[in-house]
Design brief:
heterodimer, A: 147 residues, alpha/beta, B: 130 residues, 6 strands, 36% helix, 19% strand, elongated
């Protein structure tokens, strides 16, 4: 590269062009290597078929035995959401989490079946699935109707 | 002239690269649900990824599939990779559960047990505090 007017003028002349070259090069390099996508994580999922009494949600489920199996039925219609834990209504997500934590603190690990109604959004379903997993329960399953 | 040509070349390369990257965005954009209890980041690629759009359609490898086709795909995956094949379901947060349930059931029928749901990391604790 021919240096412009290096023979005369000030000795302390800052050469901008090479710096800009390098800066552009770095900019291109980092744009090339970076990714603008949010990282996606995996949530392990498993499936359980519900007992016959719960396949139809209009029927009242049979009274479950203590800590045999926890069944969380979620029904979402429009914006409203109803939850029942083994047949007992749960007002909100916070109390569901508290109840599940209390169960875990008793030292038992019952399997949990999350049974969302067909119209429940996946956001809500996964939120409840996540609450059960976060409470320390290790067997959390989604329910599916038998074909 | 030389510095100007340098910069112009760099700009050309920059725009080429950025347009190339823009074309690479072949991924289905979905607003995934969030969860806190996800597994640590895993670089192992899934054998099969199923996208569930907000409208409820299933998208496998760029094509919209119906339940029969999905059952066939699952059977093929099972024969090719065995029961350990990783099925990844990317579902939009607004998709109803009735559109995801048949996928879970079809995978279970085909003998594929390793199903994972793609989620974003949630910033808050589930249930809104302890």
């Amino acid at each position: 590269m021919r240096l412009p007017r290096s023979s005369r003028g000030s000795v302390l002349q800052v050469q901008m062009t090479p710096m800009i070259d390098v800066v552009f090069l770095l900019l291109v390099f980092f744009l090339w290597t970076s990714s603008f996508e949010k990282p996606e994580y995996d949530l392990p999922s498993a499936l359980a078929e519900p007992p016959a009494g719960l396949a139809d949600q209009q029927e009242t489920p049979p009274p479950p035995e203590a800590f045999d199996e926890l069944i969380i039925v979620v029904r979402q219609e429009g914006g409203a959401m109803e939850m029942t834990l083994n047949g007992n209504p749960v007002p909100d997500l916070g109390s569901l989490q508290r109840q599940l934590r209390e169960i875990v603190q008793l030292g038992v690990q019952p399997p949990v079946v999350v049974d969302p109604s067909p119209e429940t959004t996946m956001r809500t379903s996964i939120q409840i699935y996540d609450i059960a997993r976060s409470a320390g329960l290790d067997r959390v399953l989604f329910a599916a109707d038998a074909p | 002239m030389t510095p100007m040509i340098d910069v112009v070349f760099l700009l050309i390369i920059f725009f080429l690269v950025s347009s190339h990257l823009a074309r690479q965005e072949s991924r289905v954009p979905l607003d995934l649900p969030t969860a806190a209890s996800h597994l640590p980041f895993d670089t192992q690629p899934a054998t099969l990824t199923i996208h569930v759009l907000a409208t409820g359609e299933w998208n496998v490898a760029g094509e919209i599939v119906d339940p029969q086709r999905l059952a066939l795909i699952f059977t093929q995956q099972q024969q090719k990779h065995g029961a350990g094949a990783i099925i990844r379901i990317r579902t939009d947060g607004l998709a109803p559960y009735r559109r995801v349930e048949p996928i879970l059931r079809a995978a279970a029928i085909a003998g594929l047990a390793n199903i994972s749901l793609a989620v974003y990391e949630s910033t808050t604790q589930p249930g809104g505090g302890r």
